[in-house]
Design goal:
The structure holds 2 protein chains of 2 kinds. Chain A is of the alpha/beta class. Helices cover about 25% and strands about 25% of the residues of chain A. Chain A starts with a strand and ends with a helix. Chain B has 2 domains: about 210 residues, HUPs (Rossmann fold), CATH 3.40.50; about 30 residues, no CATH class. In chain B, strand 8 and strand 9 form a beta hairpin. Chain B has a 9-stranded mixed sheet, with helices on both faces. A two-stranded antiparallel sheet of chain B has the order 2-3. The longest helix of chain B is centred in the first third of the chain and has 17 residues. The mean pLDDT of chain B is about 90. Chain B has 7 helices and 13 strands. The chains are: A alpha/beta, B alpha/beta. Strand 9 of chain A pairs antiparallel with strand 12 of chain B, so a sheet runs across the interface.
Chain lengths: ~325, ~260
């Protein structure tokens, strides 16, 4: 009854978030006095499982099938149901990736369960696991207790656990790799995935910017964007935005920061009227100094901010422009 | 083509949230509500598909009596009729809610079911995929584009991480969760608002649907609370001019980033 991590790979490359989940599983296993195992789904996974064998794990499952070469929710669900019946974990952990969001609810439902999605931390209470997840775009936390029959399911938010906390195998050994071949028929798969592609080349490389001023919903309308552009100009910064601004067409998509846009790490990131939903935070929380201007003191952006002004951006930004224009 | 769009009513985005004394949910007394934004995009996609290919759009909503306002708005925007699963104390468990929706859809046999990718309140991001599994439908999530294929079925554009996309082909009936920003949202017209008053809203209760919880889903929402601030943020208050001057000074001489 160990903890099973389902790692994510595509065409032989890891989704690095998987290693954060692996570190979390090792930590939980120590706290619950059990072991951690890992599974990799695909076709020709030897290189990947070999790398995993260096980690402190009880076992590694190489779940191999021709029909697992390209991801489909049908094949992944079928394969994992069979693996769960075989491995009998008490808890199955997943990185909260777009792919996991696509199949995990289906897998859990097929077993009459609900997966706890987008978990940020945990604690052990009376031998039971209590998972913390966020509601209202990060404004409220919720404690969710895992009760009843096992297995339980959870997906972990990017950055919630640290991959540099991974424990390697002790005494230079390596974890055993068990090949597991699920039964999947071509007729079980109802969707046909085609090639991955990217739209046009990005003209703006926000990743190289030293200073970024980013604007969010608080700006209210397209006509107010020039105000923030003036601030960026006064500072010599690049202008960026949260997703809703680009969705609305107020700024081009190439200026979007967040999980579906660019990931940035400038010297300074100034968030204007951005509440700080996790989809945005994952794209900018590596910035060296974070500044937030927001009227809501409980906005999650202040969770990551080094400096902040709680106030109306339409009053604060013009004053900031003046202050930046003054010589030092 | 019959298109069902699942919509949810949630607290307005800029609500100041307070925790209720029960510690199980937020204080609801002075909140205003609106359609869950991702669901507004699902509705828009449903309406555009109907305009292109004909058929009918049915809005499906599980929620208390106040949700009828959101349903009326969906009808005013162009949905043809609605199904309201009316429950004052709706479960916070996405499987329980999806079971009610699946029961309500049994008699409908839609060609396409659309939902938003997640709700702005609970944020599980699961109801659509769970509903697909309960209805036995193929699904795809985070959809940016839906095209009809010659010879049947659809071709959708899925969003992946870091600016990648993927096309997926699938037969109908199917379920799609729609990514926000897929298109521009329409406003209800005066004519639409007027027409909405005469459109059908079928009301059902959980008891009528006979979809009581079957089995334990394995999770229990224990309490909710405001997160503790872990990072020390230097906050500048007072009048905007002073706060701005202080911030700029700190950025220049303490953080030394400009």
């Amino acid at each position: 009854m160990s903890i099973l991590v389902v790692m994510e790979q595509r065409a032989g490359s890891w989704n690095r978030m998987s290693f954060e989940t692996l570190a979390a599983a090792q930590q939980l296993a120590r706290e619950l006095n059990t072991t951690a195992s890992a599974a990799v789904l695909g076709q020709g996974t030897e290189g990947l499982t070999g790398e995993l064998a260096q980690q402190q794990l009880e076992k590694i499952y190489a779940v191999e099938h021709d029909l697992l070469k390209d991801y489909t929710p049908d094949a992944y669900t079928l394969a994992l149901r069979q693996l769960l019946a075989h491995a009998k974990p008490r808890l199955a952990l997943f990185p909260h990736t777009y792919q996991v969001r696509d199949f995990l609810p289906k897998l859990a439902t097929s077993l009459g369960k609900v997966a706890v999605s987008d978990v940020v931390s945990h604690r052990i209470d009376n031998g039971q696991t209590v998972l913390v997840r966020q509601l209202f775009q990060g404004k409220v936390n919720a404690d969710v207790r895992l009760t009843g029959a096992e297995p339980h399911f959870a997906s972990l938010q990017a950055g919630a656990y640290r991959a540099d906390k991974l424990s390697p195998q002790s005494n230079q050994g390596s974890a055993p790799v068990e090949k597991f071949t699920p039964e999947i028929a071509a007729g079980d798969i109802r969707t046909r995935p085609l090639e991955l592609f990217r739209e046009s080349q990005r003209a703006v490389d926000l990743g190289a910017a030293e200073l970024i001023v980013a604007v969010g919903r608080g700006i209210k309308e397209a006509g107010n964007i020039p105000l923030v552009q003036q601030l960026a100009d006064a500072m010599g910064a690049e202008l960026a935005a949260s997703r809703p601004i680009c969705d609305a067409g107020w700024l081009p998509m190439e200026r979007q920061v967040g999980s579906s846009g660019q990931t940035v790490g400038p010297k300074m990131y100034m968030a204007i009227g951005i509440s700080g939903a996790i989809q945005h935070l994952v794209g900018m929380k590596g910035s060296r100094v974070i500044v937030a201007i927001n009227k809501d003191p409980n906005a999650p952006i202040f969770e990551v901010a080094d400096y902040g002004i709680v106030g109306d951006l339409f009053q604060v930004v013009p004053e900031l422009i003046e202050a930046f224009k003054k010589p030092k | 083509m019959k298109i069902v769009v699942a919509i949810k009513q949630v607290p307005a985005r800029d609500s100041q949230l307070r925790i209720a004394s029960s510690g199980k949910w937020i204080e609801q007394a002075d909140l205003t509500y609106e359609i869950n934004e991702p669901d507004a995009y699902a509705l828009e996609e449903g309406l555009q598909l109907k305009e292109k290919h004909g058929g009918e759009v049915v809005a499906l909503c599980a929620g208390p009596a106040r949700a009828s306002q959101t349903i009326r708005e969906a009808l005013a925007k162009g949905a043809d009729r609605a199904i309201h699963i009316e429950e004052e104390a709706m479960a916070s468990d996405p499987l329980a809610v999806a079971r009610l929706m699946a029961a309500a859809l049994k008699a409908e046999a839609p060609d396409l079911v659309l939902t938003g990718l997640q709700s702005d309140d609970l944020g599980y991001g699961q109801t659509g995929v769970i509903l697909a599994e309960l209805l036995g439908l193929p699904h795809a999530t985070l959809i940016m584009q839906v095209e009809m294929r010659d010879g049947g079925g659809i071709r959708v554009k899925r969003e992946l991480e870091d600016g990648w996309f993927q096309h997926v082909e699938m037969p109908l009936p199917a379920l799609l969760t729609i990514q926000s920003g897929i298109s521009k949202l329409r406003y209800a017209t005066l004519m639409g608002i007027k027409k909405a008053k005469t459109k059908e809203i079928k009301r059902l209760t959980a008891a009528e649907l006979g979809a009581g919880p079957s089995g334990h889903s394995g999770i229990a929402l224990e309490r909710i609370y405001l997160p503790e601030r872990t990072k020390r943020t230097q906050l500048f208050e007072g009048n905007p001019k002073e706060a701005a001057a202080k911030l700029v000074e700190k950025l220049r001489f303490e953080a030394r980033v400009i």
